[in-house]
C-alpha cells in the first residue's frame, strides 16, 4: 500500500469527521466522507477505497448492515466506531466482518495506529509468498485468497489469519489464547468469545462451499482444530 491510502469515513458526527479527516490528510491519505449510511455500500463498490472507517449508528442504514453487505463483495479493511461499549455489540461487529473496533471517545492517533497495524498485517501476508493447502482447501498468502474446491471464499484479514493458523497444522488443537495472539498481534486484550465469534463466521462461509461438511472442530474447554 502507498502513503496515498484511499480512506472512506462513514460518520455522521461533524466533529469526529473533521478531526479524523485532518489527521489522515496530514498522513497524506486521500480521504472521502459520507454522513449517511444509505449509499455507503454502493460508494464502496464503485470507488473501491483501501480502508473504511465505519460508524455503528448512522442515519438510514446502520454500520452492522453496511459491513455485512460489503463483505459479500469486498475484503477492504474496516474499523468500526461505536459509542456502545458492551461486549455483545463489539462481537456482533466482528462477526459481521469488521477487522477492528474503537469505542468513542477516542484519540485520532489511536485510529491511525490501528490502521497501520492492519495494513502491516496485509503487507506481511503479501511478502510471505506462501501457499498452504489441506484437501480441497487452498490459501494463497501472497494474494490473500482462499479457495475451497476451486471456489473463492471471501475472508476478512482476521478470519484469514485464523484459518491460516489452523491449516498450517491440521489435526492439532489450537487454544483460544494462541488464536487470539495470532489474530491480534498488537497484543490487545480481547475476550475468548471474540475468537468464538470469528470461528462461527468462518464456519458459515466455508459451509456454503462445502455442502455442509465441517472442517473446523471445537474441542470443549480447549480450542479449535482443522480436520
From TrEMBL:
The 4-aspartylphosphate modification is found at: 55
> Could you tell me which residues form the DNA-binding region?
129-227
OmpR/PhoB-type domain location is: 129-227
Q: Which GO terms describe its biological process?
A: regulation of DNA-templated transcription
Which GO terms fall under molecular function for this chain's record? phosphorelay response regulator activity; transcription cis-regulatory region binding
A Pfam family that the UniProt record links to this protein: Trans_reg_C
Instruction: Identify the keywords attached in UniProt to this record, alphabetized.
Output: DNA-binding, Phosphoprotein, Transcription, Transcription regulation, Two-component regulatory system
Q: What is this protein called?
A: Two-component system response regulator BaeR
Top-level taxonomy: Bacteria, Pseudomonadati, Pseudomonadota, Gammaproteobacteria, Oceanospirillales
Amino acid at each position: 500500500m502507498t502513503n496515498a491510502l484511499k480512506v472512506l469515513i462513514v460518520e455522521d458526527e461533524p466533529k469526529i469527521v473533521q478531526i479524523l479527516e485532518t489527521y489522515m490528510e496530514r498522513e497524506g491519505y486521500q480521504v472521502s466522507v459520507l454522513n449517511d449510511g444509505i449509499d455507503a455500500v454502493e460508494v464502496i463498490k464503485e470507488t473501491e477505497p483501501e480502508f473504511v472507517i465505519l460508524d455503528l449508528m448512522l442515519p438510514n442504514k446502520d454500520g452492522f448492515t453496511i459491513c455485512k453487505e460489503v463483505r459479500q463483495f469486498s475484503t477492504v479493511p474496516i474499523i468500526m466506531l461505536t459509542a456502545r461499549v458492551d461486549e455483545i455489540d463489539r462481537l456482533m461487529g466482528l462477526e459481521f466482518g469488521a477487522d477492528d473496533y474503537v469505542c468513542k471517545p477516542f484519540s485520532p492517533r489511536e485510529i491511525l495506529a490501528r490502521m497501520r497495524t492492519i495494513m502491516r498485517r496485509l503487507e506481511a501476508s503479501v511478502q510471505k509468498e506462501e501457499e498452504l493447502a489441506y484437501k480441497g482447501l487452498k490459501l494463497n498468502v501472497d494474494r490473500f485468497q482462499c479457495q475451497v474446491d476451486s471456489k473463492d471464499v471471501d475472508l476478512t484479514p482476521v478470519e484469514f489469519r485464523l484459518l491460516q493458523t489452523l491449516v498450517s497444522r491440521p489435526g492439532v488443537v489450537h487454544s483460544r489464547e494462541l488464536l487470539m495472539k495470532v489474530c491480534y498481534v498488537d497484543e490487545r486484550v480481547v475476550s475468548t468469545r471474540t475468537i468464538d465469534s470469528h470461528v462461527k463466521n468462518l464456519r458459515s462461509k466455508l459451509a456454503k462451499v462445502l455442502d455442509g461438511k465441517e472442517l473446523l472442530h471445537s474441542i470443549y474447554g480447549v480450542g479449535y482444530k482443522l480436520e
